[in-house]
Amino acid sequence: MADTSHGPASFWTQADALLRKNLTFQKRNIKQNIRLVSFPILLCLLLVLVQTLVNHELDKPENRCGCICIDTDGDGKCEKVCALKYSTLEQGASCPIPDPPQWPPLLQVPAPNHRAVISSVIPYTDLPNESCKRTGSCPVTMLFTGKNQTLGEVLAGNMFRSNFTLNSSDTLDNLASSVSGSESMPENSNFLDPAFYSDLPIYNVQSQCSQNPISSVPINISSIQMQQEVRCVQGLHLWRNSSSEVNSELYKGYKKGNSERKINEILAAYDFSNSNGNNFNVSIWYNSTFKNDTGSGPIALLRLPRLVNLASNAYLEFLQGSGTDMLFEFVKEMPKPESKLRLDFSSLLGTLFFTWVILQLFPVVLTSLVYEKQQKLRIMMKMHGLGDGPYWMISYTYFLTVSSIYMLCFVIFGSLIGLKFFTMNEYSIQFIFYFIYINLQISLAFLVAAMFSDVKTSTVIGYIFVFGSGLLGGFLFQFFVQDTSFPRGWIIVLELYPGFSLYRGLYEFAQYAFNGNYMGTDGMRWGDLSDSNNGMREVFIIMVVEWFLVLLFAYYVDQAVSSGTGKGTFFCLQRFRKKKLSSFKMRSLRRQGSKVSIEMEKPDVGQEREKVEKLLLDSDTTHAVICDNLKKVYSGRDGNPEKFAVRGLSLALSRGECFGMLGPNGAGKTSFINMMIGLTKSTSGTAYVQGLDIQTQMDEIYTSMGVCPQHDLLWETLTGREHLLFYGRLKNLKGSALIQAVEESLKSVNLFYGGVADKQAGKYSGGMKRRLSVAISLIGDPKVVYMDEPSTGLDPASRNNLWNVVKRAKQDRAIILTTHSMEEAEVLCDRLGVFVDGSLQCIGNPKELKARYGGSYVFTMTTSSNHEEEVENLVRRLSPNANKIYYLSGTQKFELPKQEVRIADVFESVENAKQRFTVFAWGLADTTLEDVFIKVALEAQASNVLT
């Protein structure tokens, strides 16, 4: 591991390292990528299959325009002729109609049980009584108002005939000259009005009906003759004093306020305003409740011409007398050629389905980001020198590339199989729309990822967003878009939600494709964006603005709370702090102003604290790590008190020194390491690494730091070699130096031979992963290395090999190592510190600690139970101050102070004792490091209990 770096890696070197790693990772997940791309392809194939089946049904003879074989030129040979007159009503829609039929103009007449009557909501006494609904004899009501009531009454009276008789020989002409209507909803049709082929009657509105109000008359529709029921209904015209009264009555009457919610509809209403003999000014209220499902507007407008004609005729009769009439004979559709029955399912169903297709990229990006966060891979990369700028640039570009390829495959495949949704609309508009949205979606994923730390939770939320957005768009948002009375401003507000802006754009594509395919025109073109009914332009503006705002906010949140320790909400205001060694003096001066109270501190620990204070005052640069009264306190929860994980640690480490931290579980060792590597923030105090403050300069510290965490943080699909290549590039290793460093690292931890280096890390054993983590921490010649229990799970041979690696590595760097192995601590560490309950209890090299806390021999002897007292007397003669520390079934263990005992005397006493009684076993041992550790830990715990 004799690799040498050349300073911190540049922005582009870091970006290159991350890009190479991502490409390798992507290559290993090729099956997952195929599954991802196959979803929209399968959906397109499904739509084509459904389209084929539907077209097959529509092409059947019974669904085509009716045909007959006739001899057109008298040569005895028949020719096939297809026309409307040979067709059924179902077939007529596809027939050529060069001369559409004429239909009498009709009113939209309320059904008998919906007509306005007296109620608690509408208390006008001139309305009929509610009892008429039981007999079906309720009149239809028109409301009138204006400045001149006399004129209004005259005009209202001129609208309804006193009597009218239908002539069965020419029914349609008779209806055209009468005031007729239907409760049937109008439709868009070239040759049929549903009023004449439904089971509902035609209503003839008169001022007074005769004794036989119901009749049945024949009506010819092309070659088909039908019987149509015609009913007389009384027309009631009522005066109101103002337009506001009319408005109120219409509003209150539409839905009754009680629980029965009965409908009380008015036929129409007129405001003649300031009309007189020289001026005709009229406003008309009409029922526009019924909407066209295609979104082309209120189809009740087809019933409106008769209302205008009634007012015009009434005014003309007022001026010219009763013999004058403005005849309104018919309404007529435009001619049309023969049309092939086709339903474009990609346009009808595509808005919802394609919304799901595009949105499914969101949980893919989100879970990838949260996975790196959950597995601590993001912070692991950062701790080895990867800056936030390269990470954001490469990650964003990476997801944008994947999303773009996904969308290109989707659009290209959909176009190749002939889906009108893609082929009818201009591709440049589609490209810009999809490009902007996937950028917005990726930015949104970065923002949402900052709020989650668990992949399963984020996956659930991601797919709720996918399906919820599609369903809400299809069943709620689309209804508002099609409702022309719904305020456009509120539509824009709804489109601020990214799922709805996507849905609106796809909806516009679908409408233009469907109408273009149906009418034989083009789909959406750039010129269509200026259409007031086209919402694509506002969607473009909303998505572009949201893209930049969401991206900036996501980066801010990431810097504030998600990047390792987080920089705080107002980190932007902290850029003007002094960074280098001058901060040592500033820190020490602040410390001089406040006295630190230390209770019952051991002399060696106190000496270390004094050493730290002196180093801070002298701005010393020879020590790689200086901890200055570092503390970590976890706040209490659920009624529990605060937890002191680290209590005022002061420590100084020089270059070339390996410092070992010993302590029982929960002593605070890992909390200390986490503060030093930036995983958590200290509650108070600070530490300096290479002269840089861990509170404010962790980004600079990361460039010269190596970490072997307690748990292995690895990509399961990357090999050991690929891990080291990635982290080596982050440490600015390039070319042959990088290759050599990687090979030496693999050899040093015994992962080079047997193909192990090129095996995916997910297939490594626990010990192999541990060795790889150690190699990662040391590659690139970091100046400070943290190893949290590096030999955990290793066999004796591998552990011994790892110790040799660490020994060689500590020559010019500081290493902080935590371990539970006393043997490892004694072999590797130049100095040791025993941690108990968050406090440093003692510090020194292994020999000093054993001399200081272990100044005694341990004497052990095993005899029969009859001679136990003789053994104890023997020990007392050797050392009056001996202390029995163990006794069980004849085996006794004593501590003998070294200053009272000579080893030769012990051997002589044992030989004499063997002559008097049987000695099964005996032994004399010096104090071990484990004994020191146990003694210090027990004393500290006893002291904490007393205090």
Automatic annotation (TrEMBL):
Query: Major location, coarse class?
Result: membrane
**Single GO molecular-function term?**
ABC-type transporter activity
Transmembrane feature ranges: 36-54, 348-371, 391-419, 431-453, 460-481, 539-557
The record's listing under CDD domains reads:
ABC_subfamily_A (cd03263)
State the annotated membrane topology for this chain: Multi-pass membrane protein
Indicate where this protein resides in the cell: Membrane
Q: Which domain of life is it from?
A: Eukaryota
Boundaries of every ABC transporter domain copy: 625-862
Q: Name one GO cellular component term.
A: membrane
- Assigned keywords, A-Z: ATP-binding, Membrane, Nucleotide-binding, Transmembrane, Transmembrane helix
Similarity comment: family membership: Belongs to the ABC transporter superfamily. ABCA family. CPR flippase (TC 3.A.1.211) subfamily.
Query: What is the protein name for this chain?
Result: ABC transporter domain-containing protein
Biological source species = Prunus dulcis
